[in-house]
Design a protein that fits this description.
heterodimer, A: alpha+beta, OB fold (Dihydrolipoamide Acetyltransferase, E2P), 2 domains, five-stranded mixed β-barrel, four-stranded antiparallel beta sheet, disordered C terminus, B: mainly beta, Neuraminidase, Phage tail protein beta-alpha-beta fold, Jelly Rolls, 7 domains, eight-stranded antiparallel beta sheet, 7 helices, 5% helix, 48% strand
Chain lengths: 147, 1306
């Protein structure tokens, strides 16, 4: 038996079920959305949205969290778009970590490695942290684009 | 000894045991047909009776018949033969019920019935098959028979319908469903019906046969349409097409084709209904093979199940899984060596045993095992278990067979896993004052709080302000809103909507063919069904509109609506599967007046906009609309200082003089937020497209242009001069000359009028001039006009001079102008000369310039004016347009507006005299004459563009003070969810403990509860007399049912009366917080909002003297929503739905799944000598003070416990708490659970099988210090039984571990 099959059997035998952390927008109806999980055949109705629904459209993939057994869609929190730039040369590693931590709280996601040349958030691309011009002469800017 | 069933504990006992094994799983095998083959059919039905299988087919409008004695099952030898004389309507179907065949006659279209068993005897069609329903029909129908004499029909065209209704037919009558099924696709649904407990279940597929629905009907009430499978109509990964439903000894079995995407899931299945269908281990018939199964259903032949279809059949042995007691699958053994049975709450009981031998091929894993123990030859049933595993023994080597099993129902729950995250909802309920803006969301309009009337009103007029209710979108539902209209001068336009949907930005962009970035607020499409109170010429009306992407379509109107100013006016709309009812209630009236009763019927639109976007997504939201109508128009731009407002139309704006003196201050308008009083109104005309004119021509040389003649070339800095004879002194406005441009000179041309030539001023003294740019001069010659800044007086002797720009050579000598000349018939009133700086002298040329001199028609007296070319629309009356305005609609100076203070008509040119100097006009300018309001009083002046102008006699005066919104979904209780999950797992029998279970007349009822939040189910007799009263909150809130209406009574006063005829059958009343809802046979009758600040007492009473069966289960607690996790077991889902509530479930010994809250308590018992006990205690994990927080908060202490243990605090959060009543109840339950943990008793002794975990057992026992006896109440936590049967002895003992609830010394 392959290791993969063994692992699956172990999961089958276990009683825990991991709740999904992503969903597809099925419909946008005012301030609520209907979503479906990636592999799900059914639609979950009337899901609350943290943030604005203005820029959500059917088919969008969004991050969700679960509260009291109901999903909550994280739309990014802004009706429009926001961007901020920081001169990396003037930031200490601690500063960068702090920025990362604050944003990770905002989207309830995690920051894996802020030091990489380019780091795309694993959730929605709602927040993109990147050195937009890695080869450009100093100062190099750390850009946070939040949409 | 005093134990209940006292023979359980005899001191002398003879014990024996036996087991019964049933291989209960239903397994189908395929059998090809052996009778003659029809090869194909249009439709097929079959049924069985007394071992005979009757098969009927429809082929080419003919009825074919086949009858087979099914013994043995796999050897059918019958022959199909046609029954002559029948002609069945093409596209219709066949139905069989109670031995009768139903079909639609080809000629008359009537539905007819004939006894199936008579078919073989018929040489031809009988002369008079009985008609069911109308005697004739034009449309083709699909038939679903429900009894020998009744059927449901689905009328549609021959090719199907994208929407259809249903009729119930009996005798010669029919009654139609009040709604419609709107599919969106065209096709013929598959239909069938089933009757159980006086309720008809009508099943049908959608047009494409990918989903199966049902609707219930009883006593004339039709439920909402619900899905069978997939549960969610939007499930596009699963599809279920049912083929037939039938009764197997009273068990409804639905068969069909179930498909799921991503794999090879395409199978024929059977499920047990009739509502929450089973989908556990007993499901599978076979994999699907492409052929016609339509009409095929399950029949019982002997002890066999047969799924019969035209070209074959599946046959299985019947088992207890389908309530068939079939000896072929049952075996029994009394060679039981021993068994152990352990029970604990909320988990499957475990059973293990040893047998001397394996005794039967039926002994397989998954088989059911029933255990019986006899004590002194009195046999007791221990329970039913499902075998988990078997280790076969060998009797020759004295090796026993070992069996492990679990309690049957609980094993089903543990083994079944959900295959989708189904999202279940109870009724959506909302009541709110819109002013709070927390329960409504604005989509259009500006609003403000109306503090006087305590509500929300709009800040604008003549603009629909829409707010949707912030509650879940639903398919069917009701909305009610209260309004106060406070102005006699503003016409009302207010009301509400269901199925409201505002499209997204992307959808708006796609519909309009623009990018998302370009979408403006006004571009969004709004859709819904609106009921609005409006003013018509004949008084106030209620109008019903379909709105589709902002297109309004009036569908129905109710007149004579008694709206009164400053009086509450309520509007209510109910929507149920296309059936729209609009009611109103005025002032303090209790009765709702049904104003509009209408069925949605639009040729192309669906009732739900979302269903047009995605098939099946038939939902929408509730909304309210506020507006006030006065006369409204659009302004043209006017400035901050202007004393007039230019308008498109000024009718309907009454002047001060036209208004009664006491309303004189109502002559005001709102323009873009500026409130402006006005005194007068101009004439109301709008004339567009007036072209600017340079003025009347008073001298000209406009003869034929002789291009062969030389032009006076202006190649160098030359001047050309033309003199003329003046008829009189005139105010010159412009001069037109004929000019030709050659190549591309950079400079333009100058023209001026000069006089007073002298030797030092050879071209005279210039007194007015104008210029024209190079690009405005035509390359091939044409008239150009030099327009002077203002009319200038010219007189005899004045002449024209023209020249080029300063650098006449640019860009080169080949780029220059030529002035058009005329030499063959020269102008006689003057001369044309050229002048050269080089020669410094004039030279008379042959011919004359072509020119026209323009002048203002009258002396302007220094005023500002605009001249236009006279058109037929212009009045010839002097001063006709005075006080109107001239708007520059195109060309130079566009966007400016000028007030007209005088007007002179001319045959060619008309002149408007203006208040101020016009800006930047030229001959490209075009004008519009527009009406005005003038004589303004402005306090907050602003400049305005083209803006909405509203007559503003009052501030907006319609206020909404309340909105209620309810979906039609039945409230679901904990018990309902328990059953939904259980049935999916394959459990079919449930047991509940009841708070109320009585079947007596309300007039004699003593039913009472000390709670208000619960669901009550009633079976109400048809046409009962008197009243049935459900009294909540100590009788202060009463829901009164009579045979004509349902009334809400608060504090003894009727509040709302809902007319409903003969409410009866299955009636559900849900009381939850401030909401009281009632359903009859699945149809929402009404939802009320009630006070909540009264005591928690419920009474059931009334004057009805007929029996009403009333039940309230312990678990009839409303649960708002449940999202079933996918891939979760039934047990974990049930634990999820129970949550923090103190409910327990277990399997009863008669195979029912029990859900309960209050533990069953036995009577006090004396001490049985054979029982041994032990005692232990702890203060770990107990609490004497408990606080729970959720939607409400409650804290509880128990004085005795506090004294004994001290202050041990526990605090918890519980999402299940919605109300204060919940908080109290859950806190007390939690306290009782925690305090129980302190003292534990273990009891060992002879088995007593009637008790179960979580029951409270009362026993007289030795005190813990043996100082005497106590009577203890013991909550049973764990329970185990041991049975052994050896050659030397038989033993059947039990051990109980329980918590001591109370202890009392004897």
């Amino acid at each position: 038996m392959s290791e993969i099959v063994k692992r699956l059997l172990k999961e089958i035998d276990s009683k825990s079920t991991k709740k999904p952390d992503k969903a597809i927008i099925y419909a946008v109806d005012g301030n609520r959305v209907d979503i479906r999980m990636r592999s799900s055949s059914t639609v979950i109705r009337n899901v609350e949205v943290s943030g604005s629904t203005d820029n959500l459209e059917p088919g969008d993939e969004v991050a969700i969290i679960w509260l009291d057994n109901r999903p909550l869609v994280l739309s990014g929190g802004f009706a429009g778009e926001a961007a901020a730039g920081f001169d990396v040369s003037e930031l200490s590693n601690t500063d960068i970590e702090n920025i990362a931590v604050k944003i990770s709280r905002f989207i309830s996601g995690g920051v894996s490695d802020i030091g990489n040349e380019e780091e795309v958030w694993p959730t929605q691309g709602e927040v993109v942290i990147s050195d937009v011009e890695p080869d450009a002469p100093a100062p190099r800017m750390l850009w946070l684009d939040i949409s | 000894m005093g134990i209940p069933g006292g023979n359980t504990f005899p001191l002398e006992r003879v014990i024996d045991a036996r087991i019964e094994i049933e291989d209960s799983h239903v397994r189908f095998d395929y059998f090809p047909i052996s009778e003659t083959n029809l090869y194909w059919t249009d439709y097929f039905v079959s049924y069985a009776d007394n071992g005979t299988l009757y098969r009927v087919a429809l082929k080419e409008n003919m009825i074919w018949y086949c009858e087979a004695i099914v013994s043995p099952l796999d050897t059918f030898t019958a022959t199909w033969h046609s029954v002559p004389g029948f002609s069945v309507r093409t596209g219709s179907n066949l139905a069989i019920e109670d031995g009768y065949l139903f079909y639609q006659d080809e000629v008359t279209g009537a539905v007819k019935r004939i006894l199936v068993s008579s078919l073989p005897q018929l040489g031809s069609k009988p002369s008079d098959p009985e008609t069911v329903g109308p005697a004739g029909r034009t449309e083709t129908v699909q038939i679903a028979a429900i009894s020998a004499t009744e059927c449901y029909v689905f009328p549609m065209s021959e090719t199907g319908s994208d929407r259809f209704t249903i009729e119930y037919c009996v005798g010669s009558t029919s009654s139609a469903w009040d709604g419609k099924y709107y599919d969106g696709a065209v096709g013929v649904p598959h239909v069938a019906a089933y009757r159980e407990a006086n309720t008809d279940y009508v099943y049908f597929t959608d047009a494409l046969r990918t989903r199966t629905f049902y609707i219930k009907r009883r006593n004339g009430f039709w439920s909402d349409v619900r899905t069978v499978l997939p549960i969610d109509v939007l499930d596009d990964m699963s599809s279920f097409e049912f083929t037939g439903i039938s009764s197997i000894d009273g068990l409804p079995i639905l068969c069909g084709r179930l498909r799921r995407s991503y794999g090879n899931i395409d199978m024929l299945v059977y499920m047990i209904g009739p509502e929450e269908f089973t989908a556990g281990r007993d499901l599978f018939i076979d994999t699907y093979v492409e052929q016609s199964y339509r009409g095929a259903n399950m029949v019982k032949v002997g002890n066999y199940l047969v799924y019969d279809f035209p070209f074959g059949r599946y046959i299985a042995k019947g088992t207890s899984a389908v309530d068939i007691n079939n000896p072929d699958v049952i075996s029994s053994s009394d060679e039981l060596l021993n068994f152990n049975l352990s029970k604990t709450s909320n988990e499957p009981a475990t059973f293990s045993c040893q047998l001397k031998n394996s005794f039967s091929p039926l002994l397989v894993s998954g088989a059911e095992i029933k255990v019986y123990v006899s004590i002194n030859e009195f046999e007791r049933y221990v329970g039913k278990f499902n075998i988990d595993g078997i280790v076969l023994g060998n009797e020759s080597f004295s090796k026993p067979t070992m069996i492990g099993a679990r309690s049957s129902c609980m094993k089903k729950l543990a083994q079944w896993k959900s295959d989708a995250p189904y999202d279940y909802w109870s009724q959506t309920k909302l009541t709110a004052n819109p002013k709070d803006l927390s329960d409504v969301v604005i989509t259009t309009g500006l609003f403000e709080e109306d503090t006087l009337h305590d509500g929300l009103k709009q800040r604008t007029l003549n603009e629909d302000g829409v707010l949707y209710v912030n509650a879940k979108a639903t398919r069917n539902g009701m909305i009610r809103a209260d309004f106060i209209h406070n102005s006699m001068m503003i016409k009302p336009r207010f009301g509400l909507a269901l199925n409201y949907y505002r499209e997204t930005k992307g959808q708006a962009a796609e519909r309009l063919g623009i990018s998302s970035d370009e979408v403006e607020e006004t571009d969004y499409g709004h859709s819904g069904i609106f009921a609005l109170v409006e003013d018509s010429d004949r008084g106030f009306v209620l109008n019903l509109y379909y709105v589709h992407d902002n297109t309004w379509s009036l569908q129905a109107q109710a007149t004579n609506v008694p709206l009164m100013v400053a009086t509450n006016f309520s509007v209510m709309m109910k929507f149920k599967d296309g059936h729209i009812r609009v009611y109103y209630s005025s002032g303090t009236a209790q009765n709702w007046v049904l104003a509009i009763n209408h069925v949605f019927d639009h040729e192309t639109w669906m009732p739900w906009k979302r269903a047009e976007l995605v098939k099946g997504d038939a939902i929408g939201r509730g909304a309210i609309l506020l507006n006030g109508i006065t006369n409204t128009t659009t302004s043209f731009p006017f400035s901050i200082d202007d004393d007039y407002i230019p308008l498109l139309d000024n009718t309907g704006f009454p002047t001060v003089d036209e208004l009664p003196p006491y309303l004189a201050d109502r002559a005001k308008v709102n323009v873009g937020g500026e409130i402006i009083n006005y005194a007068s109104r101009s004439r109301n005309e709008l004339i567009t497209g007036l072209k600017a004119s340079p003025g009347e021509v008073f001298i000209s040389n406009d003869k034929s242009k002789e291009f062969s003649q030389i032009f006076a070339d202006l190649r160098t800095r030359n001047y050309i001069r033309q003199t003329m004879t003046w008829p009189a002194t005139r105010y010159v406005t412009a001069v037109s000359v004929y000019v030709n441009r050659l190549n591309y000179p950079d400079d333009g041309l100058f023209l001026w009028l000069s006089r007073d030539v002298s030797s030092t001023k050879p071209v005279g003294t210039r007194f007015v001039k104008a210029s024209v740019l190079s690009e405005d001069i035509p390359e091939n010659g044409g008239w150009i006009t030099f327009l002077f800044d203002k009319p200038t007086e010219g007189k005899s002797g004045d002449f024209i001079v023209m020249t080029r720009g300063v650098d006449a050579a640019h860009p080169n000598a080949l780029s220059y102008y030529s002035v058009g000349m005329n030499s063959s018939s020269p102008y006689t009133g003057g001369l044309c000369q050229t002048f050269s700086d080089n020669t410094d002298r004039f030279t008379t040329v042959t011919g004359d310039m072509l020119f026209k001199m323009h002048a203002a028609p009258i002396t302007p007296n220094g005023s500002y004016s605009i001249m236009v070319e006279t058109t037929p629309e212009l009045s010839a009356m002097a001063g006709y347009y005075n006080n109107m305005a001239l708007y520059v609609s195109a060309g130079a100076g566009i966007g400016n507006t000028y007030r007209i203070y005088d007007y002179v008509w001319g045959a060619n040119v008309s002149t408007f005299y203006l208040e101020r100097e016009p800006i930047a006009l030229d001959l490209t300018s075009e004008f519009t004459i527009c009406p005005t309001l003038y004589g303004l009083t402005r306090t907050d002046q602003m400049a305005h563009g083209k803006e909405k102008v509203d007559w503003w006699p009052d501030n907006p005066s319609t206020t909404c003070t309340r909105v209620d919104y309810f979906s039609s979904n039945k409230d679901k209780s904990l018990a309902d969810y328990f059953e939904i999950i259980g049935r999916k797992a394959g459990v079919r029998k449930f047991y509940y403990d009841y708070l109320i279970e009585q079947d007596i007349p309300p007039a004699y009822s003593l039913a009472m509860l000390t709670k208000n939040n619960f669901l009550a189910n009633m079976q109400v007799p048809y046409q009962f007399s008197g009243t049935i009263d459900l009294e909540y909150r100590g009788g202060k809130t009463v829901l009164r049912l009579s045979s004509s209406d349902v009334t809400l009574i608060v504090d003894g006063l009727p509040q709302e009366v809902i007319a409903v005829s003969n409410i009866s059958g299955s009636v559900l009343v849900s009381s939850w917080d401030e909401f009281l809802s009632i359903w009859a046979n699945g149809e929402l009758i009404h939802s009320f909002v009630v006070p909540t600040n009264d005591p928690d007492n419920f009474y059931f009473t009334g004057t009805c003297t007929q029996d009403v069966f009333l039940t309230v289960r312990e678990a009839d607690i409303r649960i708002d929503n449940l999202l079933l996790d996918t891939n979760a077991s039934g047990i974990s889902l049930i634990n999820q739905v129970i949550g923090g509530r103190r409910f327990y479930y277990q399997e009863t010994r008669d195979d029912q799944l029990r859900l309960f809250n209050v533990r069953k308590q036995f009577l006090t018992q004396t001490y049985p000598a054979s029982i041994a006990t032990s005692y232990s205690e702890t203060d770990n994990n107990i609490a004497t003070r408990v606080r729970l927080e959720g939607g409400a908060i409650h804290e509880h202490i128990d004085a005795d416990a506090m004294r004994q243990y001290g202050n041990i605090y526990y605090e918890g959060n519980m999402s299940e708490i919605y109300t204060e009543e919940d908080a109290k109840s859950f806190t007390l339950d939690t306290f009782n659970e925690l305090i129980l943990r302190g003292k534990t008793r273990t009891i060992t002794g002879p088995a007593y099988i009637e008790i179960e975990p979580n029951e409270i057992f009362s026993l007289q026992l030795p005190n813990k210090d043996d100082s005497g006896d106590v009577i203890e109440l013991i909550n049973i936590a764990d329970l185990s039984y041991d049975f052994s049967n050896t050659e030397s002895e038989a033993r059947f003992d039990m051990q109980i571990t329980g918590n001591i609830v109370s202890s009392q010394e004897v």
